[in-house]
Amino acid sequence: MNWLTELKNHRGIIAILRGVRPDEVEAIAEELIAAGITLIEVPLNSPDPFDSIARLVKLADGRALVGAGTVLTVEAVERLAKLGSQLVISPNTNTDVIRRTRELDMFSMPGVFTATDAFNALDAGAQVLKFFPADILGASGIAGIKAVLPSGTETAAVGGVGENSFAEYRAKGIQNFGIGSTLYKPGRSVGDIGQIARKLVTAFDAAG
User: Fold this and answer.
1) Residues 86-121, buried b or exposed e (16+ Cβ, 10 A)?
2) What three-state secondary structure class fits 198?
3) Out of 6, 30, 31, 41, which one is annotated catalytic?
4) Does position 91 have pLDDT exceeding 90, yes or no?
């Protein structure tokens, strides 16, 4: 699949559901999709993450792209592939993870922080570079690194970004954002998650 083309069909907000439980993930995902957030990540340091991801894959059925975050090993990538997971997102630049993700025709979004990270990730086949933690680099810092990368390199900002900073980052050519505890944290109600999701979508669209 041409994942970069597919990414353009989705609003550039990735819901990071760190700590989500399998018994709540489907209701949360339905609320996110209804609000217009159709990129959903379950970090692998959540309770029973592979169970949650399997449920999401079945629920999404073409309506959303779903997968895992905090993917640190090739073994995890292979297990995700068997579940039908689509997204493989990491906090680091592990070229073995990136290459195996691409071999299995999944979407690769590794974490980078420096130009060296970025070029190593691209050489291994990464499709989107996740600058993390973005609030340390800032929009200008990411733009500075982006300036030396191949034209058209797709980027995402994760960590300390949200509705008040979308416009600043998008003005620098950064079009994708991972949103974690601002959107979801254990114990938050589905209704509250939906309300926050709609505010994020409104702010994202306005910043475009």
Assistant:
1) bbbbbbbbbeebbbbbbebebbbbbbbbeeebbbbb
2) helix
3) 41
4) yes
The two three-digit tokens of residue 27, written as one number: 């209701």
Match 């810092």 to its residue by tokens. 141
Give the predicted TM-score (pTM) of the model.
0.96
* Coil vs helix vs strand at 76: helix
Q: What angle do CA 198, 200, 201 make, to 5 degrees?
A: 65
Q: What is the mean pLDDT of residues 156-178?
A: 96
Question: Which DSSP category does 170 fall into?
Answer: H
- d(Cα 8, Cα 146) in Å, to the nearest integer? 19
- Quote the DSSP letter at residue 68: E
User: Which of 6, 24, 58, 130 is labelled catalytic?
Assistant: 130
Reply yes or no on whether 130 is catalytic: yes
The CATH H-level (homologous superfamily) assignment of domain 3-207 is Aldolase class I (3.20.20.70)
Is 82 one of the annotated active-site residues of the chain? no
